[in-house]
Amino acid sequence: MSLLFRFAKLHDRANTHVFTFVVTKSVTRDLERDVTSKEFACGFQRWAITFSRTDKVLGVYLVWRNPSEGMRVYVDFTFTLLNREHFSVNEAFSGKQVKFSADAPAQGNRNYIPVSDLYARNFTDTNGEFQLELTMGHVRTVFDTEFRVPQSFFSSLHSSHHRHRHHHGGSAAAAAPGSCSGKGSQQKFESTYFTFGGFDWNVSVLPHGTKELGSGGGAGAESRISVYLNRLTGFDHQCRVRYNVVLGEGERRLDSGIVDDISDSDGKGYGWHPRVRFSDLVYKGVVRVHLEMLLANTLSELCLGTTAGPGASPVGVAGVMPSVGAAAAAAGSAAPAQCYDRDKQAWTLRSDCHSDTVRLHMVYKDIHNVPRNHLR
């Protein structure tokens, strides 16, 4: 088996993550045993490593654990077998922007190293174990779909428009690929769902925009469309999301640029509302959608009391949710505010105003849930 025992994040432009595994002798000696590692996170995706083995050759693979139809992930990665004598004789192989998809979720080298070399070249210790380092960077997640526009849509372009309420993130399931629902100004195109950052998402396009933004009826209503990124799971927290969406292709291509949005507790965000006619994006009865997901972080707010006097100021905390009554208990006092993360683990936050600058102390209260020799 392979055990992740060290992790380092390099603060470089590639957002490089370095994972070091201890691989036990069962990988080379017990050919029937499952040798896939536990899952780990990188680039808002879930990953694992696994091995292929014969009597003579050891192979190693990086496995994308949460693939979705229509989604691809591109990664720069390097596997390095660490030599016990000197780093100059490490055994490594790498790939640049290697594509992972639902059809090909595992990528690697099936002829990584002869098993005999593990022992002869001093990669293993006296117990037959060796260290394998995985470096990952420039992780890119893209989702592609297309909406097939029915002929009935064009006949309704000049019909009367009615008030429309955009997609609710709590819907039970996503529609079929390129599906179109509603009539007239209430028409909406929805993609299938995909997974990113531990949440399920989909994309919806409202050809007539929303009335709240000045569309949805009247003259010139067709000149604005609405595009929403909908969160379908995980409504305990708000979520800060960053993405880039492209509609159409060729000369009909429309690029949003980077969109920063907040997905609320219902999974709804502000969206993107370009001034364009939907019909101008249609080519051969199809509107193509290209989405690149950049970031998805949970976000909550809680109030901390200050030791300098009464009153409370809101503090945004990524990934935690305030406990009931925590804000009231903390207001006007230095008592810590208790909060919970997505895994229902407890944390406390306390402010300290005794020096020239405000200091925040954050304590992981459920540290006892982390096994010995493990990190969280």
Task: Summarize, please.
Residues 160-183 are annotated as: Disordered. This protein has 376 residues and is mainly beta. Helix content is 5%, strand content 48%.
Explained architecture:
By secondary structure, this protein is mainly beta. Helices cover 5% and strands 48% of the residues. It folds into 3 domains: 2-139, Sandwich (Apoptosis, Tumor Necrosis Factor Receptor Associated Protein 2, Chain A); 143-296, Apoptosis, Tumor Necrosis Factor Receptor Associated Protein 2, Chain A (Sandwich); 299-369, no CATH class. Strand 12 (194-196) and strand 13 form a beta hairpin. The longest helix has 6 residues, at 115-120. Residues 160-183 are annotated as: Disordered.
